[in-house]
Amino acid sequence: GEDVEQSLFLSVREGDSSVINCTYTDSSSTYLYWYKQEPGAGLQLLTYIFSNMDMKQDQRLTVLLNKKDKHLSLRIADTQTGDSAIYFCAESGVETGANNLFFGTGTRLTVIP
Amino acid sequence: KAGVTQTPRYLIKTRGQQVTLSCSPISGHRSVSWYQQTPGQGLQFLFEYFSETQRNKGNFPGRFSGRQFSNSRSEMNVSTLELGDSALYLCASSLRQGGGNEQFFGPGTRLTVL
Fold first, then answer.
1. Which is higher by pLDDT, A83 or A49?
2. CA-based end-to-end distance of chain B
3. What average pLDDT does chain B have?
4. Is B99 in contact with A94 (Cβ distance < 8 A)?
């Protein structure tokens, strides 16, 4: 079955870059996502990448995918206090034919002013 | 365009009772998925509905069920509640079925079972 792993905590200083890492096991995973969850809120889709891509950039966010190592990372440039939240990576596969996502445990990002 | 709405936002029930949660997807979205989020198990997929049919189901007991109406609104029901059912229940909507479709999540319903 699918297994998605993330480190639990990350602390960075305001203005620095944050890098959140994720590993997954399902080689058939086709889409990989990053979601953000703020306290008491649902999940906000930040970005996603198709497995035939190596990199995707969207403003302050950069996603890197190493398909060989099944490693996904999210880099947040110029991290702000408003970026403090839990970040989830998730995967889905076309083969499942459905929208079910498999989520990692989440990484709690704390931005120190 | 309004986002995904879930009602109620908070709910307190006692063991043995049953509960119904509601989700209204984004207008035009036909796929609705449900997830359970707990501190111990994290985010787990419950089921997905598309065009009023359950398309996929996660590994949850039969006490968890759902349905979708012709206007794409969805409800999930949990019968014979257990303490372990206390969780944040999240609903997500997407335009179509299938991997790669952006899923937009609602704020969730926080269920507490006493």
1. A83
2. 37
3. 93
4. yes
